[in-house]
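re: the backbone from monday

yeah here it is again, tokenized this time
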């Protein structure tokens, strides 16, 4: 691993070009990454329900006039 602080212009260009290349499937081995094997939790399914409940609460506040502090 190169730990030098400064690089020449050619080294910097070479580094940027190597960073832009996508990972190779054989070298990255995504099948061995444990976070890739975890199923998605069910919180994303609750989001529409939460939005509807918040909408009802806000509509209730507006209908009852609790948000109007000016008398």
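seq for it, each position gets an aa:
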């Amino acid at each position: 691993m190169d730990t030098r602080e400064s690089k020449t212009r050619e080294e910097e260009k070479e580094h940027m070009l190597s960073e832009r290349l996508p990972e190779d499937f054989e070298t990255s081995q995504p099948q061995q990454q444990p976070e890739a094997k975890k199923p998605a939790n069910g919180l994303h399914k609750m989001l529409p329900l939460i939005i509807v409940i918040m909408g009802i609460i806000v509509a209730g506040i507006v209908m009852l006039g609790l948000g109007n502090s000016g008398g």
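The mean pLDDT is 76. The chain is about 60% helix and 0% strand.
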